[in-house]
Amino acid sequence: MKLLNKLIAGVGISTLLFATGCTGGSSETSSGSDGGSKDKVVLDYWHTYSDQEEIILNEKIKPLFEKEHPNIELKLTRMPYEGLKQQVVAGVSGGEAPDLMRMDIVWVSEFAKMGALQDLSGFEGFDEVKNSVFESPMATNLYEGKYYGVPVNTNTKIAIYNKELLEKAGYSEAPETMEQLVDASEKAVKAGAKGGIAIGGSFSWAFLPYFWSLGGTMTNEDYTKFDGYLNSPESIAAVEEIAKWQKDGLVAPTVLGGEPGTWDGMKNNEYLMIDDGPWFYSILGNEEGSKFKPEEATVSGLIPAGPGGSSSVIGGENLVTFAGSEHPEEAWTFAKWMLTDEPQRLMAEAGLIPTNKETANDPEVIQNPIVQKYVKQLETALPRTPVPQWSEIEAVINLNFEKVMRGEMDAKKALDDAAKKADSLLQQ
Amino acid sequence: MKGNIFAKIIVYAFLILGLVVFITPFIYMVMTTFIGDAYSLPRPNEVFTAVPNLDNYETVWNKNNFFRYFMNSLLVAGVATVGSVFLGALTAYSFVRFTFPGKELLFRVFLFTMMIPLVLAIVPQFTVIKNLGLVNTYWGLWLLYIGGGVVGSTFFLRGFFETVPKELEESILMDGGGNWTIFRRIYLPLSKPALGTMAIFAFSGTWDEYFVALTIIKDEAMRTLPIALMMFQGKYASNWSWIFAASIIAILPVIIIYIVFQKKFVQSGHTDGAVKG
Fold first, then answer.
1. Domains and their CATH numbers in chain A
2. Which residues of chain A does B135 touch, with a Cβ-Cβ cutoff of 8 Å?
3. Quick one: which of A387, B191, B210, B265 is 20 to 30 A from A34 by CA?
4. Do B40 and A12 touch (CB under 8 A)?
């Protein structure tokens, strides 16, 4: 199913390239024609905020921005996730893309390569914005030396342990190293846990924190070469270590898509450790009528440190402007404004981690000790390789990782093969 | 006689087994809607001890303008159903009754368009709709739905129309009626089962349609039900009891339509004995 989706996405994108080639990129946006007086610019903004976040967006962010910028009106459209990429592709090739969009950080370079996005590096005040936000999330906007977006919120994953099982394993605090984690898992599994380490699946978002922390690397520093990095002795050792956990029965069935899921297993005291983002606490904490209280029933900690230190994976969203927008100046005004202290502070109310360094480090904004751990983890978290071909490269790596987990391929062979294929995809 | 009963038992056993297999997920889904919040799918013991209540249905109905989207969908799917079945019947009639150059070729082209996956066609289709100035209108949506639906119903109805005896038409011609009368008085009444089936296909097809609707309709207020349904799915976690409650509301019209038209399925074409010898 996943493969099918990838295939569809791939085909959709090639169709887009074909279509943009045919129309010569000509586009006439009709945004602004619907509603609003003549001298008022209407900015079409696509977002994917959740219910609670959308309330803040509608009731606080929008009025505040429009008050400060009376000549701009925001037209907010919430998009569903299902098929979102194809929606953007269709919108861009039909010249009906919005002015602005808040999109997943891993999409930006891909759309930048298509020529769908506006290069923001040259706009007034860009360098100030760039210096005010965290470096790693900012780097996800980079494509061929130019920035095609700005990070509007960020997140990462930390380690979450089931308190009861952790105590059974003889630990009162979260394991700090991989050796301790393995030791705790062995004891928890012996004590009857269904799984020790619940890696969420065989895809990069799920396994990269372990891969990196165990010393693995993806590419060289400027993201141009996988061979020699993805299949370096350290990377092979990292995957071999995870494969060994799997062989010893420490990894939960979730790594191969099995049941119960990570949250389910955590709630029912079946898995010792899962890794997840801040939403684990905000969503489950708000679950009505549930006996499970995430903050009381779990212990959290940084991803246990291995040879590669404690390294997690960066998630979050970037604000981008489309190349076909008729109002690039106004769109930039909004993007820039969204990264300033006040809106960042407002969105943090809904549990989004600010990208603005000053806001994120203000103890008033982040009083919750758990969120503080996320901010701490962000210091060493890494982005998934920000290259346009990432979704295809990821598919190759995921498949080989899964084969290793199933015992069908050994780690060296899998990574050699993935590195070779990834490098050839990178040439495209 | 004995063998007969034995065979019957086997047949019924299979039927009941089939019924259980098909209905269990549905019952599980209905039971899940009675649970308060379910961000991870609930386990069987939770599901089967749930107390039936309509809380989730109420929440869903009042959330995200669900009612509004429900009415939008009713309008979109209703017009598309009538349009594609009616136009499909007219087209099928012409393929059956008239001879014109390139008829079979045209029919093949019709069939060919059915085989193109939707996702491949969406960008060109969107470009056409945009050039017609129909983006963000139901007219654009109807054009695509009816245009796509006519092909299917033509294919389906042509086969059915060919079973209508030619002699029946001659009786109309004798009385001085034309093609329109033949179509209205002979073909339509005799094809009720086929039309009913086609109507269900067309309705459920457009009622469930998500991707084209989301592409063409840009205004949140004009969106259709499948889009509203997808809004309940979050990036990191989804409230399954809400999704299931919303899904059940969404499939109700299809079930009702099915019940209304299902009688037509079993009836034959009423042509038995219409023509002598």
1. 13-155+316-374 (3.40.190.10), 158-312+389-426 (3.40.190.10)
2. 30, 94, 96
3. B210
4. no
